[in-house]
Amino acid sequence: MAKVFTLTSRVDRLEKDIENLRRDVAHLSEIISQYSAKIDVLVYAVQSESDKTKMWVEKELAKFERRLPTGKEDEK
Question: Would the pTM count as exceeding 0.85?
């Protein structure tokens, strides 16, 4: 009879541990989801900034190229 009581007590304790672990997993999943959303926003922002920088460099390069001589000899 003592063995049955011990096993029952152990099973109850393990069931409580499992429930606590399930809550922890749910909480961690929620946190991971929030950070995933934040990462998506940051990736978008970085990509946007990268695109802006690329366009700025191309614009500055075009300005510089317009100031260069054509390479053709002037007829005088």
Answer: no
